[in-house]
Amino acid sequence: MSRRSFHRASEAERRQDLIQATLDCISELGLHGATVRKIAARAGVTPGLIRHYFSCKDQMMQDAYREVMTGMTSAVAAAANADQPNPRAKLHDFIVANLSPPVADGRTLSLWAAFISHVRVDPAFAEIHLESYLAFRSVLEALVADVLIDAGETPDAKRCRELAITINGVIDGLWIEGTLVGHLFSETPLPGVAIKSVEALLGGISLAAKP
């Protein structure tokens, strides 16, 4: 296990470095194997310095989980808005980003799997998960509404929410398949499968940009 370079930086940067060291350890060793001592060794600091930034290990793990979830949402939202004015292309890029690295890769899956069992039993983890889910769904609802408007339809709030929930389910299922057995889909890339599925859910609206 390599030692992370821990440079002189601001308080916020040092805290972020520790969170990244925590995620590195969890990815390799699992939640229980990522002890404060091993995280400190990965960050190149003393366990005492970790206690300066986090009141306890639980808080450090909660912040690490928040980093994973918000990082995934931010990455796909940024992909959908990167110099892209067309609403259909935005939703297209959002879906593809969810099923492409760095969101869809083995490390992200390992981190998600390590944390997810705590969501049902730990209220703090459940709250972080809910916040992230609602933020993701809100972005998706807005993208769906814009596509419906672009297609000349009325973006009814109930329909947009139901479509966002269903599309999220499609993305989640393909994300797990792609990160676990991605080699099986070399001839049928999963982003393309997802796009076709979402177009069907939208009643045949193409996600290709209109000419």
Walkthrough of the structure:
This protein is an all-alpha fold. The protein has two domains: 1-54, Homeodomain-like (Arc Repressor Mutant, subunit A); 57-201, Orthogonal Bundle (Tetracycline Repressor, domain 2), CATH 1.10.357.10. It is built from nine helices and no strands. It has helices spanning 11-33, 36-43, 47-53, 57-81, 87-98, 106-116, 123-150, 157-181, 190-201. Helix 1 packs across helix 2, helix 7 (123-150) packs across helix 8 and helix 8 packs antiparallel against helix 9. The chain starts with 10 loop residues before the first helix and ends in a 10-residue tail after the last helix. 32% of the residues are buried.
- Mean pLDDT comes to 91
Uncertain regions spanning at least 5 consecutive residues: none
Q: What share of residues are in beta strands?
A: under 5%
> By CATH's scheme, which homologous superfamily of the largest domain applies?
Tetracycline Repressor, domain 2
Summarize the main sheet.
Answer: none
Number of strands: 0
Q: What Rg is obtained from the alpha carbons, in whole angstroms?
A: 19 Å
Assembly level: single chain
- Percentage of helical residues? over 70%
Query: How many separate domains make up the residues?
Result: 2
CATH fold group of the largest domain = Tetracycline Repressor, domain 2
The helix/strand class is mainly alpha
Can you count the helices?
Answer: 9
| Helix and strand sequence | HHHHHHHHH
Terminal CA distance reads 52 Å
